[in-house]
Write a structure and sequence with these properties.
By secondary structure, chain A is α/β, with parallel strands linked by helices. Chain A is built from eleven helices and ten strands.
Amino acid sequence: MDIRPIGVFDSGLGGLTAVRVLRRILPEENLVYFGDTARVPYGGRSRETLLKYARQDLRFLRSLDLKAILIACGTVSTTSLDALQAENDLPIVGVVEPTCRRALLVTQKKRVGLIATLASVRSGAYESMLRKLDSSMEVFCQPCPLFVPLVENGRFRRGDVVIETIAREYLEPLLAQEIDTLILGCTHYPLLEEVISDVCGPGVALVSAGEESAFELKRLLTAQNLRGPSDRQGEANFFVSDQAEDFQRIASVFLQEDLQHVAGRVDIEQF
Amino acid sequence: MDIRPIGVFDSGLGGLTAVRVLRRILPEENLVYFGDTARVPYGGRSRETLLKYARQDLRFLRSLDLKAILIACGTVSTTSLDALQAENDLPIVGVVEPTCRRALLVTQKKRVGLIATLASVRSGAYESMLRKLDSSMEVFCQPCPLFVPLVENGRFRRGDVVIETIAREYLEPLLAQEIDTLILGCTHYPLLEEVISDVCGPGVALVSAGEESAFELKRLLTAQNLRGPSDRQGEANFFVSDQAEDFQRIASVFLQEDLQHVAGRVDIEQF
């Protein structure tokens, strides 16, 4: 048994969708979330910049004595996970491998689509992992650079012509490839599930990266005997690197609950 | 006469619309452009973070021995110009004052609209300047957080339902106030001129912040005898803080010419 908290980080507040899943499946655990809101979005940045940012994010979280870390950022997971795991002596779970394992279970036709940020798609990490798990897998990728700003500006609801038009444009090339499984490779995308389902229809199963990595973390904590005491309700603490003013409103959207917390402010360049 | 170059900076590549105007009205001048592409967008960041970034941007440019600086970033101009001018001994032109002077000349009804990033609108800088210049001026502001990502993803053309829907939503509250003049308070927005004109109709005059600040810089160089030799064609050099890969393609859009230059890479955190 281990009462230390689990750390979760993302470039912004999208990773809170993974926190929501963790609170559901590991209600007894304490969580610490860090969102690098001063430097969001990570999606278009170079590998070199991403690794630098990810190291700083991790150094901040490790200053809090954690037992494990979930990287809820698809971009960091696809570009920097190996380096971070090699440099740190605690369990670090990314989003790529658990998500690909799930996609492999779900697909019938072995035709899988991936939507993600430009950096995640460019990294080729989901493709290589899927092919490593099953070399006969066909993977079709589509970067969706406008999904994050649209979600962050509240444009994620059914009936909104803007998000529906963009979603159709991004998804139609994948549907033309007759995929039967679609990986949502960015933690913002669960909020678009309805819109994406409407475009894809019932023939395409959606696999959410944030959700699968939360399940993977639960398996790992159980296997390594790192779970917290089951007779308590865990707490969550939130930190951001830029203004915390809008945190409560935006975080409530991602967590899909009425959040009463304020977020602490971290000067991330100091780490 | 002064042969040193003029520095221009912006959070990303939008400020190149100001470079385009400078090359037209000051063709003999050498220009150095810096786009902080590693930390774009500035629009949603806190004042404190913005001042820190702006100081670093300026320190980099000053390492190149310039005669004057144009801050083509609306967000920096509205939040940090006074501090930067106080700390530096060369002429620094922002976008706010020249743009407001122009709006004052253009408006008949003294009802002026402003569209800009969230940080620029929050700063209240355009409003205070307009009222300082004419206390009877009525100013109506609208933050347009989706314009920058849409423009950067090529969604700025007439006939695109996405940009037209967003533009209508942003502009209709201003039109309901019967403005006759609209300030485009962000250097990305000149690319949206057609779409914005279509929504606003002929009764609203558009004033572009980038263009007015370029004219102001020309006046200032002339007045202070800092103009370059008129018998030459000036050159432009470009620097960015993150990957320069896509620079040529994106820069060509903003400059509206076929750019043959590559951009140098700057580690801006070192400044």
